[in-house]
Amino acid sequence: MKATRIIAKFTDLSVSNTRKAVAQAAKRAAKKAKARAASKVAERKARQEALAKLGQPLKRRPRIQDEFTGLPVSRQRKYQLRKLKERRCIICGEPAALSHYCTRHAVAARERQRAGKGRARRYTNSRTYRLEAFAALEDLTRLHLGPANQ
Fold first, then answer.
1. Domain map (residue ranges) of the chain
2. Handedness of CA 7, 9, 12, 13 (dihedral sign)
3. pLDDT above 70 as % of the chain
4. Considering only CA atoms, which of 99, 98, 91, 100 is closest in space to residue 132?
5. pTM confidence score
6. pLDDT of residue 2
C-alpha cells in the first residue's frame, strides 16, 4: 500500500493505476520465470533424445551403497560421515589432521569458537597451533630443499 503511494507520488499515475502497473509487472515476471523453466525442461529432453538416437544411454553416477545409504539424514551429513570414516576433513576432503578437520579447517574452527565465546587469550600450546607450526615448517623445508632434493 505504501509502496504504491510512493510510486504514484513520483510518477504521473494515480494510486489505483500504480497498483495495476505493479500487478502487471508481477504477472510478466512470473510468466518469464515459467517460460525459462519450460525451456530448461525442453533442453534436457532434447539432449536425452539426441543421446538415445546415437545409441548412448544417459549416464548416471552409480548409487553409493554403504552403511550410510539407508540412514534418515541429509545427503550432506552422509557425505560428512563417509569422510569421517575415511579419516578425511568433513569440509574439503583432505587428510584429517584432527578427528574431523584438516589443519586449515581446524584453525578456522578454533578461531570461530574463540570469536563466538568472546575469548581474547590464545592457548598457544593447543593442538591446532602445533599443527599450524608443523605445517609451516614442512612448507619451509619443501621450499628450501626444492623438488629435486626431496
1. 2-53, 72-121
2. positive
3. 82
4. 98
5. 0.53
6. 59
Distance of CA 72 to the CA centre of its chain: 21
What region does 57 belong to: left with phi over 0, alpha with psi -120 to 50, or beta?
Answer: beta
Grid cell locating 135: 605445517
Furthest CA-CA distance within the chain: 80
CB 27 within 8 A of CB 42: no
What is the residue whose three cell numbers read 574463540?
114
pLDDT digits (tens, 9 = 90+) for 65-101: 999 999 999 999 999 999 999 999 999 999 998 889 9
Q: Is 81 exposed, middle or buried (0-12, 13-18, 19+ CB in 10 A)?
A: middle
Residue 80 CA to residue 108 CA, distance in Å, equals 17
CA distances from 121 to 38, 69, 90, 115, 117 (A): 57, 43, 28, 11, 11
Q: Which three cell numbers stand for residue 132?
A: 599450524
d(CA 99, CA 103): 11
Q: Please answer whether residues 59 and 70 qualify as being in contact, where contact means their C-beta atoms are separated by less than 8 angstroms.
A: no
Q: Residue 17: CB partners within 8 Å, gap ≥ 6?
A: 8
β-pair partners for 133: none
